[in-house]
Design goal:
Helices cover 31% and strands 25% of the residues. By secondary structure, the chain is of the alpha/beta class. Strand 5, helix 3 and strand 6 form a beta-alpha-beta unit. The protein is globular, with a radius of gyration of 16 Å.
Length: 198
């Protein structure tokens, strides 16, 4: 049973492949970032309590555009913006660079009130993620980290992995939240942390 406000509405708005296509802001925007296949679409669906609002795929790099989702939770409108994943994607270097330019154009426009960086429990924290957090900090964009797929490991292994990741990430404990799109673990806590920044 959810302890937080209910989702009043959640709708897909649009996609963009270039800065000129970004839609006008309708409220605070939360940017979802992470490696390809980290589970952004699945977590987004769980956040809004919808199974198929964001399309999911086992193929890394499926999300190649920026996607806007308009959400009202507890009467507060906001937009979740799903950014293209980085790493692991089986695409050309030129295409990866174009994705990077698109993501940077969005974040440099200072539209995001908050960045939500996803980290798969089963993968190690890397220099890419550390550099991304530093890059966000330089632009005064607050960041939360959602550790995803915690249900994919047995409890003792999951606890050990979470502890190791928290140490590597180095953010205050309340800014790193263990989640599962499958079981709903951490979703209310994540929403609370998101709303605290908006």
């Amino acid at each position: 049973m959810s302890r937080g406000p209910r989702i009043q509405s959640a709708e897909y708005r649009c996609a963009a492949s270039a800065a000129a296509e970004f839609p006008p802001p309708r409220g605070p925007e939360v940017a979802l970032l992470g490696r390809s296949n980290v589970g952004k679409s699945s977590l987004l669906n769980r956040l809004v309590n919808r199974r198929t609002l964001a399309r999911t795929s086992a193929t890394p790099g499926k999300t190649r555009l920026l996607h806007w989702y308009d959400v009202v939770r507890g009467e507060q409108p906001l937009a979740l913006v799903d950014l293209p994943g980085y790493g692991f994607a089986k695409v050309s270097r030129a295409e990866r660079q174009s994705w990077q330019r698109l993501v940077e154009a969005y974040l440099d426009a200072r539209r995001a009130r908050l960045a939500l960086l996803l980290q798969d429990l089963r993968r190690d924290w890397s220099e890419d993620e550390s550099l991304l957090l530093a890059w966000l900090a330089q632009r005064d964009i607050p960041a939360l980290v959602a550790i995803t797929k915690v249900d994919k490991e047995k409890p003792m292994r999951a606890a050990a992995r979470e502890k190791a990741l928290r140490a590597a990430i180095g953010l205050p404990p309340e800014r790193v939240i263990a989640t599962s799109a499958e079981t709903g673990k951490g979703i209310d806590e994540l929403w609370k942390a998101i709303h605290a920044e908006l």
